[in-house]
Amino acid sequence: MFLDYFALGLLIFVALVIFYGIIVIHDIPYEIAKERNHPHQDAIHVSGWVSLFTLHAIWPFLWIWATLWRKDRGWGFAKLEEEQHDIHHRVDILIDQVSTLQEEIAQLKQAGAEQNSPEKETNNVQDQEAK
């Protein structure tokens, strides 16, 4: 008789521990978001409750969403924007250098053509005199 009541109490205790354990586990992304002062912490909390109905299928994505934000660096894209700006600046410099080189090449070709023209005329005159 005592063992029946003990087993019933143990069964109720285990059921309650599992029930509250699931609730605590589903709240982990919200706790992370709250600790990090995430701007979407309310949405993460509500999504955590929705994940109970989807058998925690979206729970890993909530974890990722909660851990992406950090107060000191935000989403982490500022460094990426700085790198892109630096790359864009370098590309602009390279474009200017290529334009300058193209102009110099055009000038050198023109100067070479002018130098070759009098020599050809001189050669043509000498050929005609030789005949």
Automatic annotation (TrEMBL):
UniProt keyword annotations, A-Z: Membrane, Transmembrane, Transmembrane helix
Membrane-crossing segments per the record: 6-25, 46-66
The keyword DNA damage appears for this protein: no
InterPro entries the record matches: UCP028770
Pfam short name (any one): DUF3302
Stretches for region Disordered: 109-131
Coiled coil: none
Basic and acidic residues: compositionally biased ranges: 117-131
Designated name of the protein: GTPase
Organism: Vibrio coralliirubri
Organism classification: Bacteria, Pseudomonadati, Pseudomonadota, Gammaproteobacteria, Vibrionales
